[in-house]
Design a protein that fits this description.
This protein has about 130 residues and is an all-alpha fold. It contains seven helices and no strands. The mean pLDDT is about 85.
Length: about 130
């Protein structure tokens, strides 16, 4: 059949106990929630990403550390990936969504980031 005897009997047992759906919907990876930061830290990282979209992961980590929130640069990156904020473009999109939904007033860093994006999209015309 092209599979080992062990695998065949394991699949056969799954089908007998749970039906054919057990083979189709097998999720191999189980999330390890023990490695995640607490919810307050995660909210702070997401808020900082929207507040300063041009800052990278290590600068975000350093700036949050100044305010007493300890998370590594790679931890910041993991949080950004979970919230679809992994790159500058995604963080700007989140900022624009925030502006549209809440009508917030932009700070200097946010204005500079939006202008930078506009310069990237529309090069200066002479």
């Amino acid at each position: 059949m092209g599979v080992s005897r062990d695998t065949f009997y394991r699949y056969q047992e799954l089908v007998e106990t749970n039906g054919l759906e057990a083979l189709i919907n097998q999720d191999r990876r189980v999330a390890n929630f023990k490695n995640r930061v607490d919810e307050a830290t995660e909210r702070a990282v997401v808020a900082y990403a929207v507040e300063y979209p041009a800052h990278g992961q290590h600068r975000t980590s350093n700036e949050l550390r100044k305010s007493g929130i300890y998370v590594s640069g790679s931890g910041v990156r993991s949080i950004w990936l979970r919230h679809q904020l992994a790159n500058f473009k995604d963080r700007l999109a989140a900022l624009e969504t925030n502006i549209a939904s809440e009508g917030i007033i932009l700070n200097d860093a946010q204005i500079a980031a939006l202008e930078k994006r506009n310069r990237m999209i529309l090069p200066a015309v002479k």
